[in-house]
Amino acid sequence: MLRFHFTSEDLTKVRVATEPHALWEIAASLHRLQTREGRWAYAPWFRTACDALRRAGLERTVQTFLMPLFPRASYFPDFLTPLEGAEGLDAGLEAVLATPYERVVKEVDTLTRAVGAPAWARRLTERDMREQLVGALRSYHRAVIVPHEERIQERLHAERARQAHTLFHAGTEGMLTRLGPAIRWRPPVLEIDPYPDHRDVHLDGRGLLLIPSHFCWHAPIALADPGLPPVLLYPLHHLPATTVHADSPPLNVLLGPTRAAILRASATGSTTTEAARRAGVTPTTASHHTAVLRDAGLITSHRHANTVLHTLTPLGAALLRTAPGDR
């Protein structure tokens, strides 16, 4: 179990990342390639990613160079996901290059003890080797993440709108309560369970940066070194893709297939564009149906900058829970 211990000052310093953290998404996506867990949620990406890596000639690089440094295990080096990555890929890669020699040695040694690091990993202390690593990370990002950036950005902005709405209505503690099933707020401690090891992190006034992640699946991730600025990578919700048929469950009969699909999409928060994609209609058509659902008291809609987030009302949630085939 991982536990973050808050002071009253820390509660005023909880932040949500404004953009996708490029290097954390690289790390989490590499984890997705190493397991079948949650594969249904990433099936379209997985197929296109494997093809893209093959076309780019990166398959061997990923298997023999990147995956050993980003194992889906209890530890991988913290310097590979620097805080600067929140400012974009270039800033993050520059921080990787600038990592002090002593820190690289310490974290590679920890990787060796934890899961076993390849012999060449010690050479990451050399500038040339780290430049090769940065080049590989950049190529990987271009091949398998850039084609999906619009979708990732859209989901993150929807999550920020959801968090802003929660913060406004329920405060910081309410926001911490609703981060996900693996995260529990037991004042003044935020608990993450399950977690690969048992660790207590005392924030001591530093606050906590929450980083919603498209590729993080099920279990949140934190930096291993408690002395680094505290961050928590947590997964965005995923729902299976919905295919509408004439003989779909009763909810489709009650609302119509398009509105039923939009209602299901709203279960974890959905922008108009996401709802349109789930329902297989244009955003303009989706806007019409969200208005009908809103007037019926089944969803609420909140604008955040240029994004409108649709979420279920208690009545909408109750309808989804009681509709046969939609549980």
Which properties best describe this structure?
single chain, 327 residues, alpha/beta, Arc Repressor Mutant, subunit A, 3 domains, four-stranded mixed beta sheet, 13 helices, 11 strands, 14% strand, globular
Protein topology:
Layout: E1 2-5, H1 8-11, E2 14-16, H2 22-33, H3 39-55, H4 59-66, H5 89-97, H6 101-114, H7 127-144, H8 149-177, E3 183-186, E4 189-192, E5 199-202, E6 208-213, E7 221-222, E8 231-235, H9 250-255, H10 257-265, E9 270-271, H11 272-279, H12 283-295, E10 299-304, E11 307-312, H13 314-322
Parallel strand pairs: 1-5, 2-6, 6-8
Antiparallel strand pairs: 1-4, 3-4, 7-8, 9-11, 10-11
Helix pairs in contact: 4-7, 5-7, 10-11, 10-12, 11-12
